[in-house]
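User: I've been trying to design a sequence by hand for this structure and keep getting stuck. Would you show me what you'd pick, starting by listing the structure so we're on the same page?

Assistant: Good idea, let's start from the same input. This is the structure you sent:
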């Protein structure tokens, strides 16, 4: 089912072309969102690095600078480990260095500090001579309810899946599980035969932004789906859209029922539901999910070694673990690594492969079942990239918008994709840019993916990892007491007590990140003022 994203108010035409924007100097305070500033000729890209990604951006850099020699595109990518904390510091600084960042973990805290693409998306792109929204699938983008617009763009789409070693499964006559209990039975068979079932990160980053955190989000979604009824826009609300909200009906059997194109989340009602306990951090459903995850972790993920595991890919490649929870891009990444190893072996007959040669399979999230479960499991099924622009004032934004128009064009993204593949990287998923297709071998690798819906675009996982809106101190506390529960130091009731205490302890920080004040909670129908 194709998701429809309704864009918000559209802004005026861009004031000038990129070269003019770069040359226009204004005096003022650098880094002040929406204010005047001195605009230099630099565009700094600081997204998350990975194999082939620096070279891919450098190819776009060269292509853009060939058209705009007056612009200096600087590629300064950052490692995934610690990126969220680095970005949190940058995005709140008086004079942030980067222009283009990955805002996927920032949600509410990016409010007022990142550019709303809705204000530019209907402008004519000089790189296609048509409205920018027609260069790529803008309807597939995920709006940020806290920012009241779209503050990130993604040009590929993927989903989080279970990735498994088919050779190991075949050896023990195992089939991909469809339910949580079936998954645990598969794990027990593997464990009893001396094979570690699962490789998954148990570090802080793994809990927060990695696969462990994904599991908490995905499975809390199963037990909190009905929260959409409490937090959706009501008639008279500032964000109410009668054309969609006036006709929408709750249907948990439809995994796309609560997409932003069909129903609007009122962020003030969401925060009010947390405050008054309608959306409770210590609910029976949340306790159930946490207990079920403990049946899997850490026992089937290496025991105590789980907490020291950061990225399990190398263990999976060697055949030391049978499964991973990862984006579907893990499949072509494995085959790219294998292809490199086989080429080295061909050049040197004495070379020993450092990875196991096998066929990789995927299966979707096995659903938990039981009294508290409201709907089948969804996953994280999203456009990926999450390119946001830090707001340093309109003239700087206009300059960076022009670069983003080029990057999202057929020419720009083709350069990116070709350089990525040539330098050992792999496409993340299907391409959302008009005129750009996946190379055939990658299209075949992704052909078997079955969409099941995205859990991240609804309120159902907002407090799965601590206080709402990614308050880092709260996430770290959640990491600590969840480890304690997994290690048997506390029971589930104590875990739930600590979780509720944590969510409420940082509630004021959650509100502040969202630009919502305590007075706003009394009048959720009104646009929040922050007071």
């Amino acid at each position: 089912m194709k998701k429809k994203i309704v864009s918000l108010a559209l802004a005026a035409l861009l004031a000038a072309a990129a070269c003019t924007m770069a040359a226009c100097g204004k005096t003022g305070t650098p880094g002040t969102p929406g204010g005047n500033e001195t605009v230099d000729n630099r565009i700094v890209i600081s997204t998350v690095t990975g194999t082939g990604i620096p070279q891919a951006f450098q190819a776009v850099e060269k292509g853009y600078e060939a058209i705009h020699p007056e612009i200096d595109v600087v590629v300064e990518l950052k490692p995934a480990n610690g990126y969220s904390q680095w970005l949190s510091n940058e995005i709140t600084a008086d004079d942030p260095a980067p222009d283009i960042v990955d805002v996927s973990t920032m949600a509410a805290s990016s409010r007022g500090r990142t550019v709303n693409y809705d204000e530019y998306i209907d402008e004519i792109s000089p790189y296609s001579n048509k409205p920018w929204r027609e260069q790529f699938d803008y309807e597939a983008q995920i709006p940020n309810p806290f920012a009241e617009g779209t503050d990130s763009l993604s040009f590929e789409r993927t989903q989080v899946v279970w990735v498994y070693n088919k050779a190991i499964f075949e050896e023990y006559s195992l089939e991909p599980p469809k339910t949580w209990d079936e998954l645990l039975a598969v794990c027990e068979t593997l464990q009893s035969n001396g094979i570690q079932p699962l490789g998954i990160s148990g570090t802080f980053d793994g809990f927060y932004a990695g696969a462990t955190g994904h599991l908490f989000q995905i499975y809390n979604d199963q037990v909190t789906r009905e929260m959409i009824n409490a937090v959706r826009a009501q008639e008279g609300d500032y964000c109410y859209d009668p054309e969609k909200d006036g006709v929408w009906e709750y249907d948990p059997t439809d995994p796309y029922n609560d997409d932003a194109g069909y129903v609007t989340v009122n962020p003030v009602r969401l925060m009010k539901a947390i405050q008054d306990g309608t959306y409770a951090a210590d609910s029976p459903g949340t306790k159930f999910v946490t207990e079920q995850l403990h049946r899997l972790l850490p026992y089937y993920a290496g025991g105590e070694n789980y907490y020291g595991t950061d990225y399990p890919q190398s263990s999976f490649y060697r055949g030391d673990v049978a499964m991973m929870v990862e984006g579907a891009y893990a499949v072509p990444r494995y085959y790219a690594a294998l292809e490199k190893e086989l080429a080295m072996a061909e050049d040197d007959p004495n070379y020993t492969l450092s990875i196991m040669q096998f066929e990789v399979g995927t299966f979707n999230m096995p659903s938990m079942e039981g009294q508290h479960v409201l709907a089948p499991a969804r996953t994280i099924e999203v456009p990926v990239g999450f390119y946001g622009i830090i707001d340093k004032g309109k003239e700087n934004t206009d300059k960076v918008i022009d670069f983003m128009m080029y990057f999202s064009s057929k020419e720009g993204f083709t350069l990116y994709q070709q350089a990525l593949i040539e330098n050992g990287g792999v496409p993340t998923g299907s391409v959302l840019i008009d005129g750009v297709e996946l190379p055939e071998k990658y299209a075949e690798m992704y052909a078997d993916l079955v969409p099941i819906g995205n859990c991240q675009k609804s309120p159902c996982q907002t407090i799965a990892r601590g206080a709402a809106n990614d308050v880092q101190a709260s996430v770290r506390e959640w990491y600590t007491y969840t480890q304690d529960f997994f290690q048997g130091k506390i029971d589930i009731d104590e875990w739930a007590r600590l979780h509720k205490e944590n969510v409420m302890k940082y509630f004021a920080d959650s509100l502040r990140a969202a630009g919502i004040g305590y007075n706003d909670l009394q009048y959720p129908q009104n646009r929040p003022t922050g007071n």
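That's my pick for every position. To get oriented when you compare it with your attempt: The chain has 19 helices and twelve strands. Residues 108 and 514 are 5 Å apart (CA to CA).
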